[in-house]
Design the sequence.
């Protein structure tokens, strides 16, 4: 119960503040500015500082097999389900993405930070570093396939999608941090100047609360749309099936470190990320489904994440 009070309440309490600000004070333009500051300054500083302390030899690549094995299996299974529910071919990638793509940055990073500190961020950032590259690129490619007139340019579109994901503001700082860690290990005495590290530290400390305020304010601007039933199905799969599959893979197919497995399960249990909505908007398909999935899954995750913390035996720090 202490974990719920010390983790769930601060995380979703801060999001509630963001929601209230989004309803009253933050305009759409103001929210865009906050999002840019958070993604292009605060989170990169946090990601770089966290990974700059990590040696490559401590990274366990099995966590990627566990997490993405579970997510890709569920992703594929959601296509026939979407067809059985009468969805158009263009809506099915959005449906599958809503059921598998976690909000690992805006909510996941603060959540894991409050629960486990920097030790929990290492496995989380490994997942985040390839999450967009795999799921968003795959979904973009499938949406291109389903769109009219795209068939002659599939490889070009796939390549563009990969490059676009590599330019995502949260990916380069992770690899830059790992590279810096290796350089400091090779070159004796090499270190960041103290003043630079203090600037990065100040930005890092602001990242979790600003990310949560941004997530809450985004919900205030999005709101619920019509046809919520498919989004409710995607939400159930995202918050229940996804963490369950991750637990089964990490528990019985691989021998993950207990902390790393717990982080993978909790990230799998995160609500659908805002990128689901952005992808739907970009291709102008399944926008209502994506919007509802983000809103409903975020609201429902207050309960499901609380249950997950209890089942996993997570204790407050």
Sequence:
């Amino acid at each position: 119960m202490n974990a719920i009070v010390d983790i769930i309440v601060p995380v979703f309490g801060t999001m509630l503040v963001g929601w209230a600000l989004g309803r009253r004070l933050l305009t759409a333009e103001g929210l865009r500015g906050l999002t840019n500051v958070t993604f292009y300054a605060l989170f990169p500083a946090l990601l770089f500082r966290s990974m700059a302390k990590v040696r490559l030899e401590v990274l366990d690549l099995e966590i990627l097999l566990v997490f993405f094995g579970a997510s890709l299996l569920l992703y594929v299974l959601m296509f026939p389900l979407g067809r059985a529910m009468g969805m158009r071919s263009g809506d099915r990638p959005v449906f599958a993405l809503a059921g598998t793509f976690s909000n690992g940055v805006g909510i996941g990073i603060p959540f894991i930070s409050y629960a486990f500190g920097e030790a929990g961020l290492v496995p989380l950032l490994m997942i985040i570093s390839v999450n967009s590259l795999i799921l968003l690129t795959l979904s973009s490619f499938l949406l291109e396939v389903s769109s009219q007139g795209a068939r002659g340019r599939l490889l070009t579109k796939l390549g563009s999608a990969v490059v676009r994901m590599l330019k995502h503001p949260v990916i380069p700082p992770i690899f830059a941090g790992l590279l810096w860690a290796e350089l400091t290990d090779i070159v004796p005495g090499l270190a960041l100047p103290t003043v630079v590290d203090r600037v990065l530290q100040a930005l890092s400390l602001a990242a979790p609360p600003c990310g949560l305020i941004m997530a809450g304010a985004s919900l205030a601007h999005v709101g619920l749309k019509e046809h919520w039933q498919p989004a409710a199905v995607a939400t159930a799969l995202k918050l229940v099936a996804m963490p369950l599959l991750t637990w089964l893979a990490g528990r019985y197919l691989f021998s993950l470190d207990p902390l790393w497995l717990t982080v993978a399960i909790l990230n799998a249990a995160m609500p659908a990320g805002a990128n689901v909505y952005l992808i739907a908007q970009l291709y102008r398909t399944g926008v209502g489904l994506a919007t509802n999935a983000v809103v409903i899954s975020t609201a429902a995750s207050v309960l499901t994440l609380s249950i997950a913390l209890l089942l996993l035996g997570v204790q407050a720090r």
